[in-house]
Structure formats: structure tokens, C-alpha cells
Amino acid sequence: MPTLFAAMSAAASALTAERTRVEVAVSNIANAESTRGADGRPYRRRDVVLASDQVASFDAALGRANAVGVKVAAIVEDQAPYRKRYEPSHPDADAEGFVELPNIDAPEQMVDMLGAARAYQANLTAINLIREIVSKSLEIAR
Q1: DSSP H helical ranges for the chain
Q2: Alpha-carbon distances of 32 from 83, 86, 96, 108, rounded to whole Å
Q3: Per-residue pLDDT reduced to its tens digit, 5-32
Q4: Axis crossing angle, helix 106-141 with helix 2-30, rounded to the nearest 10
Q5: Is 43 in contact with 103 (CB distance < 8 Å)?
Q6: % helix / strand / coil in the chain, to the nearest 5?
Q7: Which pTM does this prediction carry?
Q8: Distance CA 108, CA 42 (A)
Q9: Alpha-carbon gap, residue 117 to 120, rounded angstroms
Q10: Could you tell me if 35 and 104 are in contact, meaning their C-beta atoms sit under 8 angstroms apart?
Q11: CA distances from 125 to 11, 88, 113, 141 (A)
């Protein structure tokens, strides 16, 4: 059973990481047209940096298994150049009539969000499967 609980811990860590990926993608999409932030500059696309995370380690005496999960290491701003659009009547237009827009590609963000949602679903399915295995094991033991 310790190996199942270690696997559940790894899948649970992935749920948190994938939820963060979805939240960041939603924030990026919501700000795709934000031409002015608190610093007076357009919004910058954010990316989630994931890293492996030891959630359980093997110890035969204690009956623990080795499992590596995932954690959010950082949320970083993409330093790619802003997009420019000719819109001379916009309040944030420069002298030539161009407005700087966030460096966000909405379709790309939708694909990222869909990928994170699918990964979230897969890990939730894994957790439910592990719970079912534990439940069936306890029934057999009776």
C-alpha cells in the first residue's frame, strides 16, 4: 500500500501544478489586449516553470516507496517583444500611431490551457483509480 500512497502523492502534486498552469493561461488570455499595467507598460505573457519534487522516498524498514511529483518552481514573464498594431486613435498610441500590445498569442494560450486541463484530468483519474484499488484491496482482506 505505501507504493499506492506514494503514487497518489505524486498525482496530487501534479493536480496543483496543472491548476496553476490553467490559472496562468486564463490570466494571459484575459490580458491579451491590456496595453497599460501598473508600470505603464503592456502586460507580459507569463509562463509556469515546473520542476520535479520528491514526494516520498523508499525506506524498506518504514515501508515507503520512492515517488517523484512535480511542483511549480516559478512563474516568469516572457521577455519576447510586444506586438504592435496601427491604431492612431488609441490613447496609448505612439507618435507614429502604433500601440504596443501584450506578447500573447491567444490560440497558443488556449492550446496550453487545454493541455493543462487534460493533464489535470489524467492525474485525477489516476488518483481515483488508486482509491478504487485500495478500496478493493480492503474488501478482499475482509
Answers
A1: 2-30, 106-141
A2: 10, 16, 22, 12
A3: 788 889 999 999 999 999 999 999 999 9
A4: 160
A5: no
A6: 45, 25, 30
A7: 0.83
A8: 19
A9: 5
A10: no
A11: 9, 51, 18, 24
